[in-house]
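Why CTP synthase? Reviewers of the renewal asked for a concrete example.
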Amino acid sequence: MKYVIISGGVVSGLGKGVTASSIGVVLKACGLRVTSIKIDPYLNIDAGTMSPFEHGEVFVLDDGGEVDLDLGNYERFLDVTLTKDNNITTGKIYQSVLEKERKGDYLGKTVQVVPHITDAIKDWIESVAVIPVDGKEGPADVCVIELGGTVGDIESMPFIEALRQLSFQVGPDNFCLIHVSLIPVLGVVGEQKTKPTQHSVRELRALGLTPHLLTSRSAEPLLESTKEKLSKFCHVPVENILNIHDVPNIWHIPLLLRNQNAHHSILHQLNLLSQATPPDLQQWTEMAETYDNLTESVRIAMVGKYVGLTDSYLSVVKALLHACVARSFKPSIDWIAASDLEDDSAESTPEAHAAAWKTLKSAACVLVPGGFGDRGVRGMMLAAKYARENNIPYLGICLGMQISVIEFARSVLGWERANSVEFDAQTPNPVVIFMPEGSRTHMGSTMRLGSRRTLLQTSNCITSKLYGNSEYVDERHRHRYEVNPDVIGTLEEAGLKFVGKDESGKRMEILELPSHPFYVGAQFHPEFKSRPARPSALFLGLILAATGKLEAYISRQNGS
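Here is what the prediction returned.
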C-alpha cells in the first residue's frame, strides 16, 4: 500500500479536505485506484453529537457512520463509498485501547501513548487502507490520508508520531507527505510572506517528518521568487512546491494540480511512474468550464436553522450545484433564517422579518433542509405553507418533510395543535412521533442511520419518474422521529400522498401533493449520494420545477 499524507500548517480551514480530494482525483485520473482516510484529532467518538455551528454538517455514510464533512468531499470527488472506519478520531483510538486494557490484552503492561496509542493508530490505518471502496475487488493502489487540525496542536501529536513510525515502517517508496500551508500577503507591503510556512515546516521536521511536497494556499498565484525562497528554507525541491490559489470553483483544483505536474512528483516519490498513465481529466475540465460559462441562475430559498454557517448544509449546497449545472443554471441560494419568518420577529426585528419574507417571495423554489430542535420550526411551517398555497416548488428533507406534514395537518385538516412530539410532547394531534430504532436517552448512535430501502407505492408519482425506478430507491437516513402511521389515512384522504414507505410499510419515506406542480418531502437525505456527474433525482426535480421544465423532462425520460 502506498500512502499520501496531507498535513496542514499555520491556520486551520485552509482546504486540506479539498486538496486531499483533488490529489485523489488526479491520481485516479492516472489509472490508479484510490481510497482515503480522514483523521480528526478531537475526543468525540464521531461527529454525530456535534453542533453544525461547531464543525459544519454531519455527513452520513451507507453504513450509518456519522462523520466529518470532508468524507463527503472524498465521496463526491472520487465517486467512492466510504465506511465509518475511514474516519479516525482520538475518541475511537482511545476507546479501542481502553477496551483492550480492560479485557487484559496488554498482560499487565503500563499502557502508554507510545507505543500503545500509536500502534493502534498504525493498525487502524493499515487495516482500513485495504478495504475496497470503489466497488471493485481487492485493495486500492494509494491511500490518501488527511490529518485534521494544524501541525503543533497538542491533540494531533500522537497521530504525527504514529505517521512518523509508519513512514519508517513502510519505507520511503511507499510514503509521500504533502504539507498544506498559507502564504499571506500583508496589505501595506503587498509581499508574499513565507515565514509562517517556514516555521510550520520546521515544527513538522522537529517531529520527525519532512514534507516531500509543499502546497501553498494564497489569494493570487505564487511568484517564482517566493517558490525559490520556500524551496531554500523548507528543504523541498522547487518543482515540488505547488500553489493552490483562489479559483472560481473548486472543480478547478484537480486541474490546477495537474497543470503543475503534482501527479508526476507524487508518482515519482511513490515509485509508481511505470504503473500510471497520463492523467485524463476531460470530464473535470468540461465541468469546471461549463460552470464558469453559465449565465442564467435560479433563485432557491433555503429556509433553515443554521444559515449563519453555510458548511452546516454543505451537502445540500453541493447537491443543488450538481442539479443546477446539469440543467445549465447557476445556483443562487438565498439563505433565510427560519426564525426571521415568524410572527414574533415582526415585532422584535421588523427589518429582518420584512427582508426574509421579501426574499422568500422572490425565490423560484423553496427548500427546507434537516435539523434538530424546535428553534425556527414555526418559520419553516410558514415557508411550507407559502409554497403549498402559491404552487411554488417545494422540497422538504428530513425535518423539512415533517414540517410539511405538521403544516398540512394544521391548515388543511384544521388540527390547530398538530405537532411533532419532539417539539410538544403533550400535543393532542401527534402527527410526527418517536419511533425507536435506538435508545431514548443516549444521543450518540441512537438514530435511524445509513442506507435504507424505500419501496415506491406507485409508479405514477413524480419521485418514481425522476428516479427512473418504479419499485424502490436506496438513500441515507439520519433521524429519530417519523410521521405517525395512525394519521396516514386521514392525511391521504385530504390529498397528501405517501408514495414511498419502508419495507415494513410503517415508516413514511416520501410524500407528494398531487394537486401541486412539485411539493415533495423525503424522510431520507438525498443530498448525501449526489455526485457532480450524477445529480440527486429529487434536487434535479426541484430545479426542473423551478425553471418550468419538469413536465417536459419527465415525458422525455418516460418516452425514452
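The first strand starts at residue 2 and ends at 8. This is the kind of structural detail the renewal will allow us to pursue systematically.
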